[in-house]
Amino acid sequence: MTAPSKVKLNPGDTIGILGGGQLGRMLALAAARLGLKCHVYSPDPDSPAFDVVQRATCAEYADVAALELFAADVDVVTYEFENVPSGTAMILAARRPVLPDPAVLQITQDRLAEKDFVRKLGIGTADYADVTSLEGLKQAVLKIGLPAVLKTRRFGYDGKGQVLIRASNGLKEIWDELGTHAAILEAFVPFEREISVVAARGFDGHVECYDVTENEHRDHILKFSHVPANIPDELAAQARDITRRIADAFDYTGVLAVEMFVQNGTELLVNEIAPRVHNSGHWTLDGASVSQFEQHIRAIAGWPLAPQQRHGAVTMTNLIGSDIEGYADWLAKPGATVHLYGKGPAREGRKMGHVTEVRPAEKPAKTPV
Ligand SMILES: Nc1ncnc2c1ncn2[C@@H]1O[C@H](COP(=O)(O)OP(=O)(O)O)[C@@H](O)[C@H]1O
Ligand SMILES: [Mg+2]
Q1: Are 132 and 142 in contact (CB under 8 A)?
Q2: Are 242 and 157 contained in the same domain?
Q3: How many domains does the chain contain in total?
Q4: CA 132 – CA 143 distance, rounded (Å)
Q5: What is the best residue among 271, 273, 320 to mutate for testing ligand 1's pocket, by most ligand atoms within 8 Å of CB?
Q6: Pocket around ligand 1: residues whose beta carbon is below 6 Å from it?
Q7: Which residue among 25, 173, 227, 246 has the highest number of C-beta atoms inside a 10 angstrom radius?
């Protein structure tokens, strides 16, 4: 049994979202504004996306009976995070269109497959090597050099599952601590900036890229995004072109984000691909004529994408962990738009909300007549 790979939705149809975090919540809000309904599927009873939809399933991703009921209730399935088990995606894809295609997940869930994919397109990445053992790590260090970053191939996020290696003593401890046999060693990139491009690709292959975003991390977690990135126009055009080529190569449908390092002023190296809406695109909620969330919904519904128009220079600030305690100050700040995710305890490193500040472009002074 195979479902069609795409169906065009009508207002009133239902989108199934796998994952119930803040990304799912903001997708569901955007869908509601376009007259579409959402059914959120998440194993976590405290999912913030459950608060904004009427139809929700709280079940494990391996629960076939729950997946079948979910599929029967929705017209299309999408996801808000990339670690959906491939078995889950396959069960659903047999019944309903799943967008972006689960084949994309298989690649982007695995840092090694992802980097191989990008390199095959002739796009630059940090040098890397596959590592499956302590002996292999020693060899990889000789090949790649130090400093280098050792990462688990799967399930890493917000810097989890990665270690910076500065010296070749202590490799055994580092390997044991990583606790996996599937790793990748990457050359440390002494980048000047980190940027990302969020883009949407529609049923017809048309791609709309947002302006390039510059990202600042603290403790490996995104803290600020600034738009436009402080890079020459030509480099920004190259970054968008790289993103478009990746989206085309996946025959992608929906929104994706490509994280890149800028090195030596003019060199772009792809770090990661997120097959979903992305934290570095949150500024679009208030800083652009169409948000990344709405753009994703339009794309998977088979609706026209909106050419983005940015309202000015934008800064997005993430509220992480105890930052949330300052929410009243942010609410009182002129020009700030506050988004709180309605999550439970403000654990360290947990993304609790974000704030967008838009500085409208100055209008040219009126010429006196
Ligand atoms: N090869 C590298 N060289 C330099 N910095 C890196 C490298 N890989 C990752 N980093 C830093 O760590 C951050 C998180 O790594 P990333 O690979 O994006 O994993 P994730 O976002 O899934 O945790 C990056 O945004 C970057 O700041
Ligand atoms: Mg990243």
Answers
A1: no
A2: no
A3: 3
A4: 15
A5: 271
A6: 126, 149, 156-159, 186, 188-189, 194, 217, 220, 259, 271-272
A7: 25
